[in-house]
Amino acid sequence: MFSGIVEEPGVVTAVSRRDGNVDLRVKCSFANELRIDQSVAHNGVCLTVVDLHPDGTYTVTAIQETLDRSNLGLLKEGDEVNLERSMMMNGRLDGHIVQGHVDTTALCTEIEEVEGSRYYKFVYKVDPAMARQGYVTVEKGSVTVNGVSLTVCDSGRDSFRVAIIPYTFEHTNFKAIRPGTRVNIEFDIIGKYLARLSQF
């Protein structure tokens, strides 16, 4: 479980394909604190550490289903990826409950600068059956974009906007997002449960 509070952007140092899977080698400041089998969110996707390296990097593996649902298959050497270790249960929940199970991707269509902050608009494909199960955004609800816990504004049928303050812009890979960039989306798990229970 995660909170959507990114610790830092890591740098992808190598990408290799193996039997349909993708191994990502990532460099970050806390790599030496990790252990094999530990969960780390990469752009909001929970992946397991499978190898540690003496040069301050580690390796995780993304399977085909993960690649199909996320933007991890688009990563290349030198790209930044938002990182968050799993949440400690004795700490504060500063973001919202994030599972690390990305639901789909969305496309950035617009960025607007407003008084020092930025509004990003994202559009995603809507499956009516999934929408009835809570795979949607709601006004002032929570959504995770590339692993960042954010508040929804201007929620539409297949789109939403989020406001990014300068700190978040500088300390995540939001600074690399442009119109046309594909991002990972995880809808609010509480909304999914409520929508599902309402069907019984």
* SS field, number of helical segments: 4
Please give the share of residues in helix: 10-25%
Which descriptor suits the 3D outline?
globular
Poorly predicted spans = none
Quote the average pLDDT: 95
Q: Distance between the terminal alpha carbons, to the nearest Å?
A: 27 Å
Strand content: 35-45%
* Biggest beta-sheet profile: 6 strands, antiparallel, barrel
Give Rg in angstroms.
Answer: 17 Å
Strand order of the biggest β-sheet: 1-2-5-4-3-6
**DSSP, total strands:** 12
Order of helices and strands: EEEEEHEEEHEEEHEH
Derived structural class: mainly beta
Write the layout of secondary structure elements.
Blueprint: E1 8-18, E2 21-27, E3 39-42, E4 45-53, E5 57-62, H1 64-69, E6 80-85, E7 104-114, E8 117-123, H2 128-132, E9 142-145, E10 148-151, E11 159-164, H3 166-171, E12 182-187, H4 189-197
Antiparallel strand pairs: 1-2, 1-6, 2-5, 3-4, 3-6, 4-5, 7-8, 7-12, 8-11, 9-10, 9-12
